[in-house]
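Ligand: adenosine-5'-triphosphate. Inputs:
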Amino acid sequence: MRPMATLELKQLHVALEDGTEIVKGVDLTVSSGEVHAIMGPNGSGKSTLAYAIAGHPAYVITEGQILLDGQDITEAGADERAQAGLFLAFQYPHAIPGVTVTNFLRQAMNAVRKARNGGVDDPMPVPEFRKLFLGKMDDLKVSRELASRYLNDGFSGGEKKRVEILQMAMLQPKIAVLDETDSGLDIDALKVVAEGVQRLVGPDMGALVITHYNRILKYITPDFVHVFVDGKIVEEGGPELAEKLEASGYVQWEKPKEEAA
Ligand SMILES: Nc1ncnc2c1ncn2[C@@H]1O[C@H](COP(=O)(O)OP(=O)(O)OP(=O)(O)O)[C@@H](O)[C@H]1O
Ligand SMILES: [Mg+2]
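Predicted complex:
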């Protein structure tokens, strides 16, 4: 077991490259063993927050800090953050033609192992990798045929999401950020993916789950629900808050629309 991990966002402000502020001061702490859900309307800045946590260069942290286990990673590159134990499952995963799923995962794993080994190569022996990989594929009901295809190239929406969770299961991050991992999944796939995530949450991993719907939260029980509107957390509670939102929506927090000129 690893020591408990903690991701802390402190008064985080994030702007687009043109200076438009999208995330307007977020305080949030996610520790291993915890599931936090962020729910909020379209365009409120949830994905922007996720990209900023992952270190996407197009999203500029203008104020505040990101700490992982007390270390300031606000300025760290995306690869450094991944090596430190952060994982982001994207809302819209990209294809990488020419790189098979197997090779991508092997490279990603070995990069993380190298970083954890003080910068010295420490590749997982192929038989060990294969055993782990096949086991995780079976757990997540990912068809073996996908392993030899190019990453996300022509994958269906559901296949992309499963392969992302497979990647997460292989990399064993300390904190995982899942941006709408439920969108585009049919009911069976949702269950497999959500249970796959739930199994990984524990003493070694915490999760921040961004979602629109309560349905994924039936399989991944959130300890905390944060309502996110217009770049800010406007209310926090337990799982019951997700149910309340399902009924009420976000109108009570939304600014009245300005009259069109
Ligand atoms: N790269 C970008 N270029 C221009 N505008 C952007 C960019 N990224 C985000 N935005 C804008 O920032 C705002 C917040 O977008 P974001 O994707 O973070 O919202 P969201 O809460 O994830 O929405 P959804 O629920 O629809 O996924 C939107 O108005 C969006 O158009
Ligand atoms: Mg989004």
